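> run fold Electron transfer flavoprotein subunit alpha
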Amino acid sequence: MYSNNLLATVRLHSTPKVLTIQPGYFCNVEPNTGNTSVIIEEFLYERNDEPKAVLLSHKQSEKVKTNLATADIVVGGGRGLKTKETFELIHRLADTMHAAVGVTRAAADLGFAPYDLQIGQTGKVISPTIYFAIGISGATQHIAGIYLSKIIVAINTNREEPIFESSDIGLIGDATTIIPQLITKLSPNNNK
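> ok
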């Protein structure tokens, strides 16, 4: 199912019980500093067998400057940017705003950015204050990852793309023209 349109009740009768929740699914809340914790059930799990998987190596992603899952501003780029060189404009805009960079599955498949920056059903769910969707069509799978965004700004040349149905602000135009103008206006040394 897409866009979180499936509900299920699950009963687990064995131990251990493990629940995984996609990062970014819940909004950030202030931690409870009082000591009001209660242990509902305590159990010990002993592993009697060898591990099924072993971590051989860990590689840090390149160009990951701001944490995508916790960023206040995210600039996302899609296949509509057409080339890896054009996608570099996304990085420049994000640097100007101290924002995180995200990518659609299609753009990651084209090698514009690494898969660990992917937003959507098979990527991360994000909840920034502002999300810029640039060159993104608005496929249901991507919308599933951005629906918690407070404000969505879409930039696309095709006014018929579904992303505009989910956006709060829409700009019809070429990203290669609009992004440099945004960078100039948002630049710290711009006095206007």
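Residues 5 and 144 are 10 Å apart (CA to CA).
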